[in-house]
Amino acid sequence: MGMLLLYLAALILIPLWAQSKVKKAYKKYSNVSNSSGMTGASVAKKILEENGIYNVRVEPTKGKLTDHYDPSKKVVRLSEDNYYNSTVAAQAIASHEVGHAIQDAENYAFLRFRSTLAPVASTGSNLSFFLILAGILLQSTGMFLAGIVFFSAAVLFQLVTLPVEFNASSRAMNQIVATGIISNNEERETKKVLDAAALTYVAAALVAVLELGRFIAMFLMTSEE
Length: 225
Prior knowledge:
This protein has 225 residues and is mainly alpha-helical. 74% of the residues lie in helices and 6% in strands. It has helices spanning 2-29, 40-50, 80-84, 88-105, 109-137, 141-178, 187-224, and strands at residues 57-61, 68-70, 75-79. A 3-stranded mixed beta sheet has the order 1-3-2. Strand 2 (68-70) and strand 3 (75-79) form a beta hairpin. Helix 4 (88-105) crosses helix 6. It is elongated and about 65 Å long. Keywords: Membrane, Transmembrane, Transmembrane helix. The chain crosses the membrane at residues 117-137, 144-164, 198-221. InterPro entries: Zn_peptidase_2.
């Protein structure tokens, strides 16, 4: 019982801890102006131009921390705070999203693999819990195992996301330094924002692996009965 409680606590607390870190860093550096005076939109457009990428648009989008790159429509979407404001947080997040656009332009293997895996992972995530629950209720090891296989696709997606996100952050730092967007004393602050955001992906992957481990353990115990 003690191990089960510890496990459940980890599933709940790890994501909450990661989210609190990114929110704290974002809130802090959203109130710190960057030295260049460039908005997130300007940072994104400059990096795209410096890399000869002219087929990617930069657009504002509603919400907070809704920033993302859409490879299917070739658009970098920045939350309005980051699009219009000239803060350390805005330049960090804008450059990270453009990092994904550069990955796309260079046919970065992990990004391609993740895009291919996305629909399978989405289906697997939605279907797996139904199959696992049905397998338990109907005492069907076949359905239970099928659920685990489908859930494994979702876990693989989370794991593949890690190199994609870390690489985008690495590219972001390289680009904003190389283009002279940030001064030396801003590198540390910008990296803090990027590192905090990366924690959310690490937490999601860790929770997914723990969940998969739990399902496998349950399946093995059911099979032995």
